Amino acid sequence: MKLQEAINLIEKAFPHSNMPQVWADLGCGGGTFTNALAHLLPDGSHIYAIDNRLQSFPKLLGNNVSIDFIKNDFATSDLNFSNINGILMTNSLHYIKDKATLINMLEKYMSEDKKFVIVEYDTIIANHWVPYPINFLGLKELFIELGYSKIIKLDEQNSIYGQGNLYSVAIGKTF
Q: Signal peptide: which range, if any (predicted)?
């Protein structure tokens, strides 16, 4: 995916603000969406880019957003940060079988105004690359059960991998 396509999928979740923010990108991979996030956050923001495989990032991306890469399995390890403004998960939630437990665990790292931005395949059909899929309806139901009241579908686009559509969603208790 190209940078502009990634930006287009998530940009509606980031209203223009001058206040620096701290985000975590869980399952960042090579960093396409980390870079997109850095272009959408205000100058002086910070991103923790987390992946279970070693990745290489410059110290600054996008709008002078600083990046710290952490090699870690976000699903099973304690993460060394707190009071973050939001969590970005792009094509990483479908690797988690018990999504509710993970989300509850991640909340301890977040500020009071919890915000998730998620990009996933809109399917319920599992395969080798998407072992625990969650379509938009399933994701919406999951977060409602966990007490979230704001679940907004941002965008969608065709998957180049034949998995159907990718959808993006912003989730919070308030906005």
A: none
Question: Is-contact 121 17, C-beta < 8 A?
Answer: no
CATH code of the domain in which 91 resides: 3.40.50.150
Structural domain containing residue 148:
3-172
Please give the tally of structural domains in the chain. Answer: 1
Can you tell me the distance from the alpha carbon of 27 to that of 88, in angstroms, rounded to the nearest whole number? Answer: 9
Q: Tell me which amino acid residue 120 is.
A: E
Q: Are 87 and 24 in contact (CB under 8 A)?
A: yes
Distance CA(120)–CA(156), nearest Å, equals 9
User: Which tens digits make up the pLDDT trace of 66-79?
Assistant: 999 999 999 998 89
Whether 134 contacts 120, CB under 8 Å: yes
Give me the amino acid identity at 114.
K
Q: Please write the tens of the pLDDT for every residue from 150-168.
A: 999 999 998 766 667 999 9
The answer to whether the CB of 121 falls within 8 A of the CB of 166 is yes
- 22-26: strand order across its sheet: 60-61, 65-71, 46-51, 22-26, 86-90, 115-121, 165-172, 150-158
